[in-house]
Amino acid sequence: MILAHTVNEFRRGYKGTPPSERLPWRLRQKLSQRGVSCFNPRGRSLKDISAVGRVLGLVLECLDAAEPGNEQGRIVAGMAVTHAARSVFSRWRQDAQAFLATHPSAVIRRGESLQEVVARWRRFARHGQGPGAEWPLLDVLYNLLPWMPAFQDEPEHQVYLEAISRTAAQAAAFSSYRALILRDERHRTRSIQAVIQDVLAPIADDLVEVDEDIMPSVPRDRLNLMTIHQAKGLEFPLVIVDISSDFTRNHPKQRFRRFPDEPSPVTLLEDHLAACTPIGSLRTARTAIQRSFEDLIRLYYVAYSRPQSVLMLVGCLPCLRYSKTLPHVATFWRRDETWAWRQPLSGQPPPMADRHPLTLL
Fold first, then answer.
1. Which intervals hold domain UvrD-like helicase C-terminal (predicted)?
2. Which end of the chain is more exposed for a tag (fewer CB within 10 A), N or C?
């Protein structure tokens, strides 16, 4: 198990710059080259998963196909969706069209190819041709899954599929057309608009999160990544704790995660509400900055008490090397910015053969 403060595989982009890679993504890429898979469904946004974009792009192509001169689709072009969602829709469509161009024919469902299934739904969405007066969005989605074996075999993709299905099921409760595609016009176009607005747009706007609780246990044949908060109450034979893979310099915007120089928002809120609670005076007996340090200490205590046999700390060298200059609670720096491991030695160290085994470790 790998534990970290956050398991995001990419940092956020800034002013048009693309997101940069983090340790979980680099680790996933390196291990995949050696035939080892990772389980980190929370590491990337749903909208950025290639398989999710491919299947949702196919759904868009079924309901509102792109046309020459109108790559966004007739219905999407006239809708009020965010610029970010419109950009994600275009990327999804490109992935779906590229997938259709490969003519996937390894699976034939009821005598139909994927191209024929997409064409059948297009006829229903555009002209109302086909059986049935209404069809749930989930029927459109599940008709496409036989050509997406990852959603049936891969644990991560099953978590992604649950998030998409949950979004469609919730839309059935509050959406104006209950996530149904109606055959008769004018309701046909309006029902498609409702599906795009209430199901696809929230995913494209990164408003839908995965639910890892649907997995009764973490897959044992994969390297699992968890946040430290997720790992409470669990134990593993080997635990790797990422304490400083993001810290290469003493940047003030990172100090709250390793060595805060000002109170955290949580402790400030406690100070404001202390007068309104009977235990407020007990909680504020220590200063806000002291409580901020204590919260970090408790966090890393949880991480360090998860292993059954081996604990390994990983990160960038400025926080790990002996001559480091970046203070970090996780490496036992004191709040007065002293570090016991770097205290000057008194006299000569004993010979290597006479040292205690724990000292060598």
1. 206-314
2. C
Residue at 84: amino acid letter: A
3-class DSSP state of 243: strand
DSSP symbol at 216: S
Structure tokens at 166: 């949950």
Cα 127 to Cα 165, 183, 186: the distances in Å are: 26, 8, 11
- Mean pLDDT of the region 296-313: 94
- CA proximity to 60, closest of 107, 109, 104, 100: 100
Residue in 256, 219, 242 with CA at minimum distance from that of residue 36: 219
Confidence class of residue 135 from pLDDT cuts 50, 70 and 90?
A: very high
Count of domains forming the chain: 2
Q: Which residue has the higher pLDDT, 189 or 347?
A: 189
Residue whose C-alpha is closest to residue 201's, from 29, 46, 356: 46
pLDDT digits (tens, 9 = 90+) for 67-106: 877 788 889 888 888 999 999 999 999 999 999 988 876 5
- Beta bridge partners, 134, equal 182
Looking at the structure, do residues 219 and 199 belong to the same domain, yes or no?
A: no
Residue 353, in any domain of the structure: no
C-alpha span between 285 and 256 (Å, rounded): 21
Query: With 90 as the cut, is the pLDDT of residue 302 above it?
Result: yes
Q: How is residue 277 annotated by DSSP?
A: S
| Residue labelled with tokens 């000569």 | 348
Distance CA 108, CA 246 (A): 47
Give yes or no for a contact between 299 and 328, defined as CB atoms under 8 angstroms apart. no
Domain residues for the domain of 106 are 43-209
Which of 222, 138, 211 is closest to 178 using CA atoms?
A: 138
Name the domain boundary from 209, 229, 263.
209
Backbone dihedral region of 206: left (phi > 0), alpha (psi from -120 to 50 degrees) or beta?
left
Tokens read off for 258: 């390793």
Which secondary structure element, helix H or strand E, spans residue 237, and what is its range? strand 236-244
